[in-house]
Write a structure and sequence with these properties.
The chain is of the alpha+beta class. Helix content is about 35%, strand content about 25%.
Length: about 180
């Protein structure tokens, strides 16, 4: 299979919640309609919604750059759990919180699920590790994240790979659910 390697920033928009946006606008509220996704909410390729903070829909709409939509990929970039990612399956439910970046794939160039699978791979994690700064609180700067390279085969090949991996993922989840029920 023939493909090119491209910097992430060429095939997707990569952004985060700016510090001033967090301090000036984000106020966690008990009855907020929108879940603010923090680094602890992203584990092993999935969202963990067991401990969430919420914000108002009005604030999420106001900060549209950090609003999360379907097929966006979230990636933690700070702390000992940097490199965790998840792909979003619905719009108008989530918003970025600190220490998480949003990757919006250009769907003409890259299939979102294909990109998510690669971001969740050992190869991508090795690249991240080579770009870490700091030791007490490891961080990968946004500029460095945008330069990490992604394999980019033809879009029809990506979609075919994604389709097969989704089927396998679904079977793994179904088997896990069955096993959990047997243990319970």
């Amino acid at each position: 299979m023939k493909f090119e390697w491209k910097p992430l920033g060429e095939i997707a928009e990569v952004t985060k919640l700016a510090g001033f946006e967090f301090t000036k606008y984000i106020n966690y509220i008990e009855d907020g309609e929108i879940i603010a996704l923090r680094a602890l909410n992203i584990r092993r390729g999935e969202l963990d919604l067991s401990n969430v903070k919420r914000i108002s829909k009005k604030i999420s709409e106001k900060l549209s750059r950090s609003k999360i939509n379907r097929n966006d990929i979230l990636l933690t970039y700070t702390g000992n759990s940097y490199g965790n990612c998840a792909i979003i399956d619905e719009s108008d439910k989530y918003h970025l919180a600190p220490n998480v970046c949003k990757i919006v794939p250009n769907q003409k160039l890259i299939d979102p699920y294909f990109l998510y699978c690669y971001i969740n791979s050992t190869g991508f994690h090795k690249q991240m590790k080579n770009n870490v700064s700091g030791s007490a609180q490891p961080t990968i700067p946004m500029k460095a994240i945008r330069t990490l390279t992604i394999p980019v085969p033809k879009i029809n090949v990506q979609k075919n790979i994604s389709k097969k991996i989704k089927l396998l993922d679904r079977k793994v989840r179904e088997n896990k659910k069955l096993n959990d029920n047997l243990v319970a």
